[in-house]
Write a structure and sequence with these properties.
This protein is mainly alpha-helical. It is built from four helices and two strands. A two-stranded antiparallel sheet has the order 1-2. The longest helix has 20 residues. It is extended.
């Protein structure tokens, strides 16, 4: 029998099914699932002895320190900046299409944080000739 192929870099059928199930669940179901996960983790941590807890924390610290030690300051800065950008963009709801989005402008949305929108830049570089408003350019 040939050796089993590694699943590294691939999504297994079970992982795909779990992802599909999570995508289909309601907000209430998601909240209940996450709460159950938190309670289960809290129960497992509460059953640990103080020595086991300290050992687990020390292992975590050692693993994180080793991971960070191989990174330079520039890499760290890049990673943190990428994480900040990802968090700020992920807070913006995904818009299926940007067509006519300007007609449904909502000031509470941070359009300028979305990677597909450039405010104040147009193909000809000029603001609206009628009202002087900056135009959106979708890339």
């Amino acid at each position: 029998m040939p050796p089993k192929k590694s699943n590294i870099g691939r999504k297994s059928l079970k992982a795909q099914q779990a992802q599909h199930q999570r995508e289909q669940e309601t907000q209430e179901t998601k909240r209940a699932r996450l709460e159950a996960n938190r309670e289960r983790a809290a129960d497992l941590r509460s059953q640990q002895t103080p020595e086991q807890t300290e050992l687990r924390r020390e292992d975590d610290r050692t693993r994180q320190a080793a991971h960070r030690a191989v990174k330079t300051g520039a890499e760290r800065d890049r990673r943190l900046e990428a994480m900040r950008a990802k968090v700020s963009v992920s807070a913006i709801p995904r818009v299926a299409t940007w067509v006519n989005e300007a007609y449904h402008y909502q000031p509470e949305k941070d359009y300028h944080l979305h990677k597909e929108v450039q405010i104040g830049t147009t193909s000809n570089g000029k603001p609206c000739s009628y009202c002087g408003a900056k135009k959106l350019l979708f890339v």
